[in-house]
Amino acid sequence: MTDQIHYEDIETGSEITSLTVTVTETQMFLFSAATYNGHRIHYDKVWARDVEGYDNVLVQGPLQAALLSRALTDWIGGDGRLVRFSVQNRAIAYPGQELTFGGVVTGKAAGLVDLDIYCRRGEDVLMPGTATVALPQRAER
Question: Please, what is the Cα angle at 107 between 1 and 134, to 5 degrees?
Fold first, then answer.
């Protein structure tokens, strides 16, 4: 985690510090177990291929959303607060693919910062969304 960012430190158009993750099959299996997600497309390659028609098992959308929220909370620091978070899972990801989670500041007012957020594979946006965070202001300290 980096030093605490403050409301005054950012401007519209600023990018948050991105998080890049290559999800493994083990991570996916554990996430399925922790979330009681028994859908076989996340851990059974034969099922995913022969029954569902995919090339491989699929990275869970909620896992991608969790990693995106991690990128946001890492960026806002311990004194920041995630106020709103909304995403849409629009494309599939496979294990072993490098995924980047990040966002761009779209506006700010009264200590709140609005962002367009994303999960990308290369230039392809798999999961777009929006978020609002509250950042501490230097005058508050």
Answer: 45
Interhelix angle 25-34/61-76, rounded to 10 degrees, is: 90
Residues 48-88: pLDDT tens digits? 999 999 999 999 999 999 999 999 999 999 999 999 999 99
Strand 81-87 to 124-134 pairing: antiparallel
The answer to whether residues 114 and 7 touch, using CB atoms and an 8 Å cutoff, is no
What domains are there in the chain, each with its CATH number?
7-23+61-134 (3.10.129.10)
Rounded alpha-carbon distances, angstroms, from residue 8 to 71, 75, 80, 84, 102:
20, 14, 13, 20, 20
Q: What is the DSSP letter of 128?
A: E
Pull the structure tokens for residue 11.
Answer: 């401007």
Q: Give the pLDDT band (50/70/90) at residue 1.
A: very low
pLDDT in tens, 15-28: 999 999 999 999 99
**DSSP type of residue 139:** G
Closest CA to 116 of 84, 76, 141: 84
* Model confidence pTM above 0.85: yes
